[in-house]
Design a protein that fits this description.
Length: 203
């Protein structure tokens, strides 16, 4: 069951107990972003990167925030830095493909997806990663096929991360509510994007 508002309260409490923990603050930033609260995510994650500018997990989450802000050039730079530092590798490639696709570089996105597909022949790549990639390339049939595969394989990343904004392209599809129900999810309220969101750059 999706319990992001409850998770937010718990992460805020954890941060009060350990204000210097990079991973707690990063998870708090991820939760804010998942709830559509990008300004608060930016604030928390900015503090993490002041402590450690190369913390790969924080770079990974800030890249997702930049995608929601349509600041695609920054998102691409951040996710590449995160991957170079070894952060969230399988998810990171999904975010990279998403950033390429949303920036308009469909050829680059599809080339990266082809590389990931080849890698999956010899190394396990979670279905979650392919769901994200196909969803943001507009290939919804393959995205939902991978969702079915992920549910069958009990891909642990799906119930934990399926409610991220990166999966919003799937929402209008009539198959989406059934997937949410099968994952035991209830969609949380999400803050609408602010009109003060910075304009797209490098898109």
């Amino acid at each position: 069951r999706n319990r992001l508002p409850e998770a937010l309260a718990q992460m805020q409490l954890a941060r009060r107990y350990d204000p210097l923990s990079r991973i707690i603050a990063t998870e708090l930033g991820w939760t804010y972003n998942s709830l559509g609260r990008q300004a608060e995510a930016d604030s928390v994650l900015g503090e993490v990167l002041k402590l450690d500018p190369n913390f790969s997990q924080a770079l990974f989450v800030v890249a997702q925030v930049r995608l929601e802000q349509k600041r695609y050039a920054e998102a691409l730079d951040l996710i590449r830095r995160s991957l170079a530092g070894g952060g969230s590798t399988s998810q990171g490639y999904g975010v990279l493909i998403t950033a390429l696709a949303r920036s308009g570089d469909l050829r680059g996105a599809r080339a990266m997806l082809d590389s990931l597909t080849r890698l999956a022949r010899t190394t396990y790549v979670p279905p979650f990663t392919f769901v994200m990639a196909y969803a943001n390339l507009g290939d919804f049939d393959r995205a939902f096929a991978m969702l079915e595969k992920g549910i069958a394989e009990r891909d642990i990343l799906l119930p934990e991360n399926f409610f991220e904004p990166l999966f919003d392209p799937l929402k209008p599809d009539p198959r989406y509510p059934g997937i949410v129900q099968r994952l035991g999810g209830v969609m949380p309220p999400r803050t609408p994007p602010s009109r003060s969101t910075p304009p797209a750059r490098g898109g």
